[in-house]
Amino acid sequence: MHADEAAAGGTADAAAGRTAEAPAGNRRSGAVAALAGLATEPGVAKPDPILIVDNVVRRFGGLTAVNVEHVEIQRGSITALIGPNGAGKTTFFNQLTGFDTADSGEWTFNGRRMNGVAAHKIARIGMVRTFQLTKALSKLTVLENMRLGAQGQIGEGFLRALIPALWRGQEDEITERAEELLKRFKLDAKRGDFAGSLSGGQRKLLEMARALMVKPELVMLDEPMAGVNPALTQSLLGHVKDLREQGMTVLFVEHDMDMVRDISDWVIVMAQGSVIAEGPPDTIMSDPRVVDAYLGAHHDTPLSAEEEERQLAEAEAELEEGAPVQEPAADGKDAPAPGEDAPAQEGAGR
Predict the structure, then answer these.
(1) Burial degree of 207 (CB within 10 A; 0-12, 13-18, 19+)
(2) What is the chain's mean pLDDT, rounded?
(3) What is the dihedral of CA 178, 180, 183, 184, to 10 degrees?
(4) Please, are residues 16 and 47 in contact by the beta-carbon 8 Å criterion?
């Protein structure tokens, strides 16, 4: 059913929310307009979803890590996926991108069912991701890492690799595209350096640039700012925004609420494996369900007098239980405290 809806959405005009066809520079306003007026409830339908998820469940033993009933990602927008630690965000990413297998459920990308599709095939289709911990190949140069990201390379076959005339032209084109991306991400000066010599922030930039070698439609970023030097944060933010301006859809996991407010058009909130809220950034930041998920349901409720007395009695009891017991001396006088010398007895030395 949802695949049919996606196909119908794929033929919608700009008024129905096809922001990817908007002129560069107007895509954020187009994305915001497409999402305006939608209900802030989990699973709300989008005008033109590129990704539709239904009833995805992932369990580890008795723990249900992911239990997402329905989620849609709007095409041409930047969507943030937020939630407390342990909410299941990265596990959810892993299901969608083929790095883990869901116990049940289904999801479609551009109307195509993706259940059971291998990770490398998902990337070829146009749905790529980055990781919390970067996956750069440290013993290869920055440029070699970029070349590896290109798809359909003729020279990857053993026999064809023996005939340079078959693949030399394509490799030159791949190298040219890699050079352009490195220049855009300001890594061109590092092109000949080993990837292992880059800083954490530079590796994040390299991983994002390498993902673009696939020419994706949907880019999924898992905590792109984690461990990044503040000096590179604004650069990364600019590159994420630029993905939308180039017509791509972005779904990213992040804990930095200032970043989420700055660049996202829509926010999805997870807690305990489930989606609990969706909406525009400003609305989500003040949503009681979101505040409760992060701070607890009773974080701002004043205590009653009885509750205060009960908590005080419990604290005093804990202190008394932890206090050292001091044994009286044999003559009834207090024993010396630990570390003190015993008092000299009268008549000693006479």
Answers:
(1) buried
(2) 80
(3) -110
(4) yes
> Which residue carries 């390379």 as its tokens?
153
Share of the chain above pLDDT 70, in %: 81
Chain CA centroid to CA 111, Å:
24
For the chain, what are the domain ranges? 2-136+214-295, 140-197
The answer to whether the beta carbons of residues 70 and 39 sit under 8 Å apart is: no
**Cβ-based neighbour number of residue 152 at 10 Å:** 8
How far is the C-alpha of 244 from the C-alpha of 75, rounded, in Å? 10
Q: What is the pLDDT of residues 165-187, one digit of tens each?
A: 888 888 889 899 999 999 988 89
| Number of C-beta neighbours around residue 275 at 10 A | 24
CATH topology of domain 2-136+214-295: Rossmann fold (3.40.50)
What is the distance between the alpha carbons of residues 52 and 3, in angstroms, rounded to a whole number? 8
Give the chain as a 3 state SS string: CHHHHHHHHHCCCHHHCCHHHCCCCCHHHHHHHHHCCCCCCCCCCCCCEEEEEEEEEEEECCEEEEEEEEEEEECCCEEEEECCCCCCHHHHHHHHCCCCCCCEEEEEECCEECCCCCHHHHHHHCEEECCCCCCCCCCCEHHHHHHHCCCCCHHHCHHHHCCHHHHHHHHHHHHHHHHHHHHHCCCHHHCCCEHHHCCHHHHHHHHHHHHHCCCCCEEEEECCCCCCCHHHHHHHHHHHHHHHHCCCEEEEECCCHHHHHHHCCEEEEEECCEEEEEECHHHHHCCHHHHHHHHCCCCCCCCCHHHHHHHHHHHHHHHHHHCCCCCCCCCCCCCCCCCCCCCCCCCCCC
Cα dist from 115 to 58, 100, 155, 165, whole Å: 13, 11, 30, 39
Cβ proximity of 92 and 71 under 8 Å? no
Question: What distance, in Å, lies between the first and last C-alpha atoms of the chain?
Answer: 105
Tokens describing residue 322: 């932890």
Query: Nearest 5 degrees, angle CA 38-CA 41-CA 46?
Result: 40
User: Which pLDDT belongs to residue 296?
Assistant: 62
